[in-house]
């Protein structure tokens, strides 16, 4: 077995293939900036935007075949300004055009108005024809626009809730699991919703979650572990081989959560193997984790035969390129995934790794004025960069999760500071919901509000409210809920169980578990570990009150002075009597939650 240090040497050596676009492109690419849009307006030229992912096979093919074609290059040079964007490096652009997949090709007129959008690979002849057609007639196609939200509310109306539940049920693929679409992957919110409904007694929903999670194990690399992004052809047998951090963190979190609920050892093993993959291939030697591993060994050439090989056979040929950028969002979501795995398993190495990543984020991505930048370690670049909601809400959620597993109050203070930055520097009184990025006077496009990010924001900031007791946090959560609960947004969706999860959480208290006792007390330690390991791994508030540290930050319940360590379980209707035995906590939770229904 090749050790991690050797692998890193290989990854950073000549076996990593350079980007094809830099060598072969017939186009002079510009970076995304307001100045490019100003230049287009002054010159009368249109803009072509290529949104790519460095791990994406068809992006490589488009670089090698389409953007290296002389006719395409001449047509672009004559009437267009060309912008190329790595979607991992630009969260706002990624959010805006996520539905178009990668590569996405977006055309704007000289006034910065979207006129044409295309998804996926475009061959050279088709691209030349498209460029010429846009020059002849730059009228905007019906490409979709920002959703106009007319009513703001902090809860779903009954009709929209019923519609979302119906969407969830009919979107399920009874034969293969997951969503009934051609692309097979783990949709995290629909699986989490099904799992929670199953824990509440709906056996059909539990079966749905289990079928999807079991089927999705086919996306796991049989040699190196880690999860491929998705499979095509409507089944799980045609994987695309890129391994992006988003897929890894989702898999770790959901399999850990499912293991806590079902005790299926296959789920625990899958989560742990995925951590092993990350530590072997994507862990940076000086802290933090890299972003992705390419789908292709040689860019633009499909690699099914390569991924059919055994470990040492692959190593002998080389390793697909790793994107060595270390972004806040990807590292923060990994923290949250690891905290779930630690809660479910009690593996202290996992806890230590989650805390270590948190410390790395604070040291390398935190701005001097608060908040977290996307990718630069340089202090000046960090402070000058645009703030993205995805980074800062993921950091906020990670800090809540670190507080939950450690009872170290510094993490809760970092979470509340992150909420303040989002409120003061990203949220806007003129925008319903939370925009994907801080708004600048020179931004060429109108602010974009991303549904997925606002679902995460509603859930994370609402949880923070219960830990902090600050009414301003509740108000901020309701601001993001105003967008995701709108009838206009819901009507645009195929399915969106995340809205159901956010609505349920915003309108009730979390399950509250508190251990009262000294942190040096072995019995208190066992009670705290048992509280973390309960089957309820989703909407919960877990704290450890050591009286020597003073009152809890949100000390909304007064607990009695007892001769020995005890745990208490509360929901939004009642609290339990003291629990002295760790193995009784789960039983009391079932009793308390059962009383509520």
TrEMBL record:
Keywords: Signal. It holds the Pfam family Thioredox_DsbH. Residues 11-136 form the Thioredoxin domain. The keyword Signal applies. The keyword DNA-binding does not apply. Residues 1-21 form the signal peptide. InterPro entries: 6-hairpin_glycosidase_sf, 6hp_glycosidase-like_sf, Ssp411, Ssp411-like_TRX, Thioredoxin-like_sf, Thioredoxin_domain. Gene3D superfamilies: 1.50.10.10, Glutaredoxin. This is Thioredoxin domain-containing protein. It comes from Zhongshania arctica.
């Amino acid at each position: 077995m090749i050790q991690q240090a050797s692998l890193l040497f290989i990854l950073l050596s000549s076996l990593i293939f350079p980007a094809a676009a830099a060598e072969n492109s017939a186009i002079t690419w510009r970076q995304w900036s307001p100045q490019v849009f100003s230049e287009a307006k002054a010159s009368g030229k249109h803009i072509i935007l290529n949104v790519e992912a460095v791990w994406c096979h068809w992006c490589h093919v488009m670089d090698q075949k389409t953007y290296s074609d002389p006719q395409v290059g001449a047509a672009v040079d004559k009437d267009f300004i060309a912008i190329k964007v790595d979607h991992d490096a630009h969260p706002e652009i990624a959010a805006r055009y996520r539905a178009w997949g990668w590569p996405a090709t977006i055309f704007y007129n000289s006034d910065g108005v979207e006129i044409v959008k295309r998804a996926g690979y475009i061959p050279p002849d088709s691209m030349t024809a498209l460029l010429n057609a846009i020059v002849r007639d730059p009228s905007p196609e019906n490409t979709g626009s920002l959703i106009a939200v007319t009513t703001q509310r902090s809860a779903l109306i009954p009709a929209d809730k019923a519609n979302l539940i119906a969407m969830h049920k009919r979107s399920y693929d009874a034969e293969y699991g997951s969503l009934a679409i051609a692309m097979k992957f783990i949709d995290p919110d629909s699986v989490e919703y099904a799992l929670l409904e199953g824990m509440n007694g709906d056996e059909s929903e539990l079966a749905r979650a289990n079928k999807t999670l079991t089927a999705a194990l086919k996306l796991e690399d049989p040699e190196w572990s880690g999860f491929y992004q998705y499979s095509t052809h409507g089944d799980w047998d045609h994987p695309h081989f890129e391994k992006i951090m988003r897929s890894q963190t989702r898999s770790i979190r959901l399999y850990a959560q499912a293991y806590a609920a079902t005790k299926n050892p296959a789920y625990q093993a899958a989560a742990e193997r995925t951590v092993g993959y990350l530590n072997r291939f994507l862990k940076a030697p000086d802290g933090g984790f890299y972003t992705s591993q390419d789908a292709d060994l040689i860019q633009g050439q499909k690699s099914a035969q390569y991924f059919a090989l055994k470990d040492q056979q692959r190593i002998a040929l080389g390793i697909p390129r790793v994107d060595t950028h270390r972004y806040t969002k990807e590292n923060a979501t990994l923290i949250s995934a690891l905290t779930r795995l630690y809660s479910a398993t009690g593996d202290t190495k996992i806890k230590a790794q989650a805390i270590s990543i948190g410390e790395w984020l604070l040291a390398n991505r935190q701005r001097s004025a608060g908040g977290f930048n996307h990718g630069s370690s340089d202090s000046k670049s960090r402070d000058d960069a645009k703030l993205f909601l995805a980074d800062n809400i993921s950091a906020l959620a990670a800090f809540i999760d670190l507080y939950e597993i450690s009872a170290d109050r510094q993490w809760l203070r970092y979470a509340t500071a992150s909420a303040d930055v989002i409120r003061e520097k990203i949220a806007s009184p003129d925008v319903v919901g939370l925009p994907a990025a801080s708004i600048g006077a020179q931004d060429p496009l109108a602010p974009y509000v991303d549904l997925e990010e606002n679902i995460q924001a509603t859930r994370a900031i609402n949880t923070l409210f219960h830990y902090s007791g600050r009414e301003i946090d509740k108000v901020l959560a309701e601001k993001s809920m105003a967008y995701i609960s709108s009838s206009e947004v819901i009507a645009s969706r195929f399915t969106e169980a995340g809205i159901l999860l956010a609505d349920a959480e915003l309108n009730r208290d979390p399950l509250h578990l508190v251990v009262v006792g000294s942190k040096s007390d072995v019995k208190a330690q066992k009670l705290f570990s048992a509280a973390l390991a309960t089957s309820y791994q989703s909407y919960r508030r877990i704290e450890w009150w050591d009286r020597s540290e003073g009152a809890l930050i949100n000390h909304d319940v007064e607990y009695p002075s007892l001769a020995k360590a005890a745990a208490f379980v509360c929901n939004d209707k009642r609290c339990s009597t003291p629990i002295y035995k760790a193995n009784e906590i789960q039983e009391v939770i079932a009793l308390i939650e059962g009383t509520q229904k």
